[in-house]
Amino acid sequence: MSTVVLLTATGLGLGALYFLVASGLSLIFGLMDVLNFAHGALLSIGAYATWWAASGHLPGAGSGGAGFVWAVAFGTAVGTVAAMVLELALIRPLYERPREQVLATVGVGLAVPALLSAVWGADARTFPGPTALSGTFGLLGARIPVNRLVLIGAALVVLVALRLFLGRTRHGLVVRAGVEDRAMVTALGIDVRRAFTLVFAIGGAAAALGGALGGLYYGSVDPGQGTSLLIFAFVVVVMGGMGSVSGAALAAVGVGLVQQFANYYTASGLGDLAVVVLLAALLLLRPHGATGRLA
């Protein structure tokens, strides 16, 4: 029983991490029809910025208490700014040229890890997390890592915030309307470009937050972390339905649980194969994903 509880908790924590990455990816693709292969780079930027700040290089930031919260906020802010720069400088001129858009984002996705390796080396760096989050607590006979609860809590906050943004705010409604008929919204005097930049910023913030908290999950950061998580993020987005944040949340939970249980009860490494089989089965039964709708 304790093993099942532990695998469930770690699977939910891993699913929460996948959702933080996939939510921004789903938002950007679903609302803007931009297949952003540089999304993993935004995660890596957020992870390294948080690691840099938590290591004591940023005044007021550190590896414990309020200092760590400040470090995570700094990493998220850096990822958000990077996403805005990416949209303004690279994506916006290529909105009508999807092929060049894909090539450009792939290039950024390859260049950023190489740059991080050149500056800080290719080896993983130990993530300086708070002592309070490195312990465990008891639940039904199992010892659950505390940082899994942090990931789950952050994912729930992001899910609620994104649903409120899309359904209850003016900017969310403007973005959804702009996707359906950009010319009409522009004719009404609304600057759709600013709304699209906002969406990119929100997606980048979610990815950077995933990178910051991913350091807690793995205990380290490395240049290729964003690329490896991006693969599973794409799987989650496809399974959840293109553009559906709620679908991405359901798919992330499923992927995290399947991966953890398969890795434990079968040969090591078969968890990834189990995820691919789950993706194929879902697409055969529901070609549009788990929900097939926006938000």
From TrEMBL:
InterPro entries: ABC_transp_permease, BCAA_transport_permease. The keyword Transport applies. Pfam families: BPD_transp_2. One of its GO terms (biological process) is amino acid transport. GO terms for molecular function: transmembrane transporter activity. CDD domains: TM_PBP1_LivH_like (cd06582). The chain crosses the membrane at residues 6-27, 34-54, 66-90, 102-122, 142-166, 195-218, 230-257, 264-285. Belongs to the binding-protein-dependent transport system permease family. LivHM subfamily. This is Amino acid/amide ABC transporter membrane protein 1, HAAT family. It comes from Actinacidiphila alni.
